[in-house]
## 1
Amino acid sequence: MFKYEKQLQYPINIKKKDLRMAKYLVTQYGGSNGELAAALRYLNQRLTMPDNKGKALLNDIGTEELGHVEMLETMIYQLMKDATLEEIKEAGLDTHYAEHAKSLFPTDANGVPFTVAYFASTGDPLADIQEDMAAEQKARAVYENLIDLTTDPDVIEPLLFLRQREIVHFNRFKELFEYYEKKQNTKKEIINDNDLNMNNFYPFNQNFNNMF
Amino acid sequence: MNNYQYVNYDWYNMNRMYQPNNLSLYNPEEAIIRGNLFKDLYKDYKDYKPRKPQLRTEQERKLFEIQSLCFAAHELNLYLDLHPEDQSMLRLMNDYIIKKDQLVKDYENKYGPLTLNSTGNQTSFNWVNNTWPWEEYNV
């Protein structure tokens, strides 16, 4: 189960409202490379990881990503909370206001709503972990785009923190990927006495669990 | 002008980074400011430098100490998921957690509970009264 801690992973105090930035930041909340997609993807994939290392890593990174969802929510909320209706119209958030007023709603920066299609699970551990590595790289790139779009140090600071987390997670996933790949190669050697083309062969899926 | 003109990290190196046997770590405060406990994994973006958050109140400063220790322990947690046999890292994680628990106790006595687990000695239900993380801590 999950329990709540009444603290952010990293402190956020944004003093200046900035509706345009709120409009961009929402993509890391509800976009395809966003934190909500990452959290739910990892917490979903963890069940079919082939060993305890994989289950633990996906569980613990997925849980951290939920904390990042909260950070994004906090940033968007603080950037928007003092805005007047006039400012909301000016920033092009009038369409958001029509449906949600000042409440948060997970979409990407173009207003496309969050969808479970972002989960991208195949059940093949190597494919899933490479999906996760790519997700971390894409999120890092988006954070860099977002940093480029602002000059407010109160916003840049947590964005740099979140960007760096993508780099750490990428490296952890990569380590896990290489560890599984090595296991796969060991398995190849064991069954290498038939005529299969070993360079084009994945001895995986249902049998993968038996390797551990 | 496109962003690539400023990209100063080395893609190849970034993708080849392995965790060395001999690890060098930042201390918890340096780590949370950078978002990274592991010196070898740290990568800057352009010429942005990590900055310590501006903490305006005693409460925010106390909470930041807790956040720093939580962060360092969490980083070790992710590392230990893949290297559960590493005793020295396990000891370090335990140290950070013990220190954090002491700070949490002090903090909660003064400012109210951080979790519902820790409300055992409350005389009033402060969970509904103290500040939520997305709000401003009273100056």
## 2
Amino acid sequence: MASQRLPSLVEDDARLDALASYAILDTPAERGFDDIVLLACQLCQVPVSLVSLVADDRQWFKARVNFPSCGTDLNSSVCAHALAQPDEVLVIPDLTADPRTRANPLVTGDPFIRFYAGAPLVMPDGHVLGSLCVIDKAVRPAGLTEAQAENLKALARQVVTQLELRRAVMTRDQARGEEQRAYQVREALRDAQARIAATGDDLDAVLQAVVAGAIQAVPTAEGGVIELLDGDRLEYRAVRGTLAPHLGLRVPLATSSAGYCARTGLPYLMADAASDPHVRRDLVAGLGLGSAILAPIPHGDAVLGVLKLQAARPGAFTRGDLDILGLFTSAATAGLTEATARADARAKDVYWRGLFDRLSEGFVVGEVIRDAAGHVADWRYVEVNPAWGELIGIDPSTVAGRTVREVIPDIENEWVSEVADVVATGRTANFTRRIGTLGRWYEGRAFALDGDRFGIIFLEVTARVEADARRLALLSLGDRLRDLATVGEMTRAAAEIVGRTLGATRAGFGRIEGDVEAIEVEPDWTAPGIPSIAGRHRFDDYGDIRAHLRRGDALVIDDVATDPRTRDDPGPMRAIDVGALVNMPVRERGRTVAVFIVHDVQARIWTPEELSFLRNVADRLEVGVARVRAEELQAVLNTELAHRLKNTLAVVQSIATQTLRGVTEREPVDAFERRVLALSRAHDVLMQKSWAAARMQAVMESVLGMQADLDRFAFDGPDMDISPQAALSLTLLLHELATNALKYGSLSANSGQVRVAWRTEDGTAPALVLDWTETGGPAAAAPTGRGGFGSKLIRMGLVGTRKADLRYASTGLRAEFRAPLTDIQIQVH
Amino acid sequence: MTELHPNHAIVLVVEDDPILMLSLVDFVENAGCEAIEATTVADAIRILETRPDIRTVFTDLDMRGSTAGMALALSIRDRWPPIELLMVSSQPWDAAQIPARGVVFGKPFDRRRIVAAIQRFAA
């Protein structure tokens, strides 16, 4: 085989690449090349001519004349030797004689060729791809003429030109094809995306659009499917073409081609299903699967599923198709993400909507209405929730588009001005407010939305507000009852508080007469337009209500027209504007002596809370009345006692005077009379506070006013309550001081004055300090001797402390008295 | 004493308590007047009807039948308008209830003021 050595150029990679670039091997015969070999036969006077292209393992004939096969292996090639001398025509006159060819099978066997001449096919880039050759079965020792050789070379150049032309046309067509293809793919992708966008949040529609688009983009595909991962299986969720019958098919993730693709996360080209290692054999026939391309649908790091296109024949798809498939899986991912987001958003909408509908709070979305000047005088309901209807008592489906003043006529202006303010300032407003016409209280907040819109969320708090009102009413009643001095004032105060608190139309107090036969109603409280029923009424005139009251129970009638005790003839009740009533007994020493009356002109249901409130009011009234009665009795007793005491003191004066009738010196008698008188003055002051205390200045003025005009005294000190003992002591002390001042001191002179000043001193032992200062009279002199009873009283000082500092100055007497404040003031227990 | 002060003013003293009567008469005499005693309202009226020379009545308002004294005072003001009225009482009286020109003193007695008042009326 040494003789068969071929030029090394045969296997040159660059040359082989160049050959491949012409894509000429195994292509059908073409006229251009066939004509050239015909011309070569005639030119060289041979029967056989070939356009031979030398590949790495064979030679292949693009055109041939009188040669049986379209190619041979390289052992049989003569042309291969032509490659070695690109500039010349290789001429071998006797192939049996040439060492390169004598062993060639075509020489040694059929067709027994003997002459060969070949012009190399030298391409413009210098590569030699083969030759244009002529062959004869007879030895031709003369070879070719020079002209024949030149002409053969010229024809070889024509072959090269043909090859060049052919490649140029092919390249152009391929470019056009690719352009067309890319356009198709883009078109298909755009269609798919448009369909995805139009599907909204319908997941299956998104998948369907992706499959349709992929099939459109890869025309060799006959069927398509998106299989979505569901646990350890993949489910056929969107199918098309030959796969259409297989919707819902589930294949195992572990043992299927789609599963392989999903597990690896990589695109996969299944060139031939028959030999594919990953496909499920049992499915191949059923699915009509010859070849397929598969690409994962990624979502972040995870894989949602697989997009697969298939064809019945093997090898229907290329790598390029796999790339196109990638475009569609991306679209699928985007579509799925978008659809999921939209589905989430819709689910959220549904969620919020449900919340809005189920909310126990009332919810209003409203919009303010402006007049020409921009002033807000009303607002319109945009939307309300079902709870709004329950809390307001109006069918919520009827209010959208109407204004609040239409829906709730006579609604308070605050319900409009507040939201106007909220819309104007953007500030949230909290409210607790009543809608008067509904008689219900609401608490909530109003907040700005966009533009002229606002929201109100609220709850009804009528029960709480009314409970608060009742509690406050009881407190207020307690205060009023404590301060009021007569039963009449008390019952009127209670009637007004109860009437206003319960929103009743009449409230009053009536005394029971006889055996619950009649009632004397005191001046009552009434709502505007409701007449008073003060005066006497007979129970039997109003229905069968007497027996109830006799038992001492509260009489409660929600509706006089239906209550069995009054329904037979509700006329008399109606005549005094009573639609509903409560008579709550007030007892005195266990007996019902009065009733507290509450009327409403309308029928109404008296709640247990309201009745309990009334019971409470009646109880307080009982206590208050009892206190007033006790105080009245006490006052009578006090007055009587004071009267008797003073009368008795007058009798004591008389007895003393008569007893001392024989005493010629009248002065001590007179002094005695006046001391008794002074003591009595102290009692007068004490009686004003039921002998519990006295006002200090009143005590002083009372006793000193007995001695001289009060304008001769100057008082200076903090007025305070002092104890009865201190009052008596102070009275006797000042009486003696004033008596002396009249006799010897400043008051003996016309212009003389006395200043009485007192103060308290704080410290460990707080004290009262009282100063008596005489001015404008003669110089004072100490009394001679021990002095009489008067001097003793003065030296005893206040409440017997003996802390008396007496100074006999030239301007007059100056005395200072001290006593512990605790002995002076009232001890509060 | 009447004969000692034949030319002095005559004061009718009305008092149902004999001990207090002693004091009231004392006050009248201290004032240099002559006292005529009546122990009941009826006595007083009878005396007034027979003694037109009485120019002053001095009565206790706290007599049995709590309003008897005041009733007397009011009827004197009605029937004998010129007569001056001097009264004592252990209870406070509303000024509106006191007959015109009447003066009320409290109990126990302030001798100086009572005597001064009798003298003023008698003058």
